[in-house]
Design goal:
By secondary structure, the chain is an alpha/beta fold. Helices cover 33% and strands 25% of the residues. Strand 2 (36-44), helix 2 (48-58) and strand 3 form a beta-alpha-beta unit. The chain binds alpha-L-sorbopyranose (SOE).
């Protein structure tokens, strides 16, 4: 048997996503054995004590406190960027120039300019790359993709998505710093448009093709918040809520909504597609189920099927337990890295590449432009 190729990973960032990725790096070879295995070589974070604690907890061999040193190291093959959005571009460009493969958290950049330079850099360097839009890899969402691709929905008329949270309602919540940089526009780029709608847009374009134009509205409900780093009260620059109408290039119509002010909803991502022959509906709070309606079923027994996506012939599931036993959120990251490694073996790069991440950022940018101009805006490309 040929020896597996070991790829040494250097992770930047020890927050929520650093944990989600590290967990996936550990599990992937156990559940999706392939030509490659990953070695957790180094974790990089500015706070030495935190980086050391993370390395000990997650099994990284070493640490760095400056990402430049990590990128320069000869013993690193893959740079994984799980640090705040304002660091993505600089790290990705340096990593690509050093010939490393680059994985990057979403959104790719804070704006299309950054994302464009990142996509150009990895392509020029010829290095493998991927953006962590993990929700594509939930088995029930992948099943929706199969259903759509097989033409079972027929011509698609409608796409509908929302991503609702409620964690920023308190005006006492500060902006900036660990965990709260998502509220600081200079770090995040935007609010819920880049953080939550970006997920919805990525899945939507993967399922239903490119978006041609959008008409949006945004709102910032809490106008000023104390900044964690300066202690000063400062204007809030992010969008707290964002909703838009869209037209896909295939002629279908869409509505999208995201907010962090929907009291009671923690991470309610739902999507629905309505076609000539059928519809699919998926809900993150019930993530292992796909709701599917097929109008071509015999009339007397026609109705919505609630498919429990746990059987061995359903996406990814044969690699896990036995039929009927479900998996969850963390597994979407395992699937994503499994697909990335499979792409290295097959030569068929796993999606979404940086180029696809750029396409999502163009839509986000058009949404923000439209909210400002109060008119329809075309999506470039
Ligand atoms: C924000 O609360 C957040 O953590 C996003 O940043 C993630 O991308 C999303 O998956 C869950 O919510």
């Amino acid at each position: 048997m040929a020896a597996k190729k070991i790829l040494n990973v250097g992770l930047v960032g020890y927050g929520f996503m650093g944990r989600a990725h590290s967990n996936a790096f550990h599990k992937v070879s156990h559940f999706f054995p392939g030509d490659h295995t990953l070695a957790l070589q180094a974790i990089c974070g500015r706070d030495r004590a935190k980086a050391e604690a993370f390395a000990a907890q997650w099994g990284y061999r070493g640490i760095e406190t400056d990402w430049r040193k990590l990128v320069e190291r000869g013993d690193i093959d893959v740079i994984d960027i799980a640090s705040p959005n304002d660091t993505h571009e600089e790290i990705a460009l340096a990593a690509a120039a050093a010939g490393k493969m680059v994985l990057c958290e979403k959104p790719l950049g804070r704006n299309p300019g950054e994302s464009q330079r990142m996509a150009d850099a990895v392509e020029k360097a010829g290095v493998a790359n991927m953006v962590w839009y993990n929700y594509r890899r939930i088995p029930a969402v992948m099943l929706a993709k199969q259903v759509a691709d097989e033409g079972k929905l027929g011509r698609v008329f409608h796409y509908r998505a929302k991503f609702l949270q409620d964690w920023t309602i308190s005006p006492d919540l500060p902006q900036g710093g660990a965990g709260l940089w998502r509220l600081d526009a200079s770090v995040a780029g935007s609010g819920v448009t880049g953080d939550l709608l970006a997920h919805c847009i990525d899945t939507a374009m993967w399922l239903n093709g490119p978006i041609a134009e959008v008409c949006a509205m945004t709102e910032t409900f809490v106008k000023e918040r104390k900044h964690t780093l300066t202690g000063e009260v400062a204007p809030v620059g992010i969008d707290d809520a964002s909703a838009f109408l869209a037209r896909f290039t295939n002629g279908s119509l869409a509505t999208f909504e995201a907010t962090r002010y929907a009291r009671g909803h923690k991470a309610l991502y739902t999507l629905e597609m309505n076609g000539e022959h059928g519809s699919v509906f998926w809900d993150l709070h019930d993530l292992h189920r796909l709701q599917y309606f097929d109008h071509r079923d015999e009339g007397r027994v026609r109705g919505w099927r609630s498919i429990h996506v746990t059987d061995g012939d359903q996406p990814y599931m044969k690699n896990w337990w036995v039929p009927g036993l479900q998996i969850g959120y963390e597994h979407s990251f395992v699937h994503q890295v499994a697909d990335f490694l499979a792409g290295l073996s097959s030569g068929q790069p796993a999606e979404p590449t940086f180029r696809a991440g750029l396409a999502t950022d163009y839509v986000c940018d058009a949404v923000l432009r439209s909210a400002r101009s109060r008119s329809w805006e075309a999506v470039p490309g």
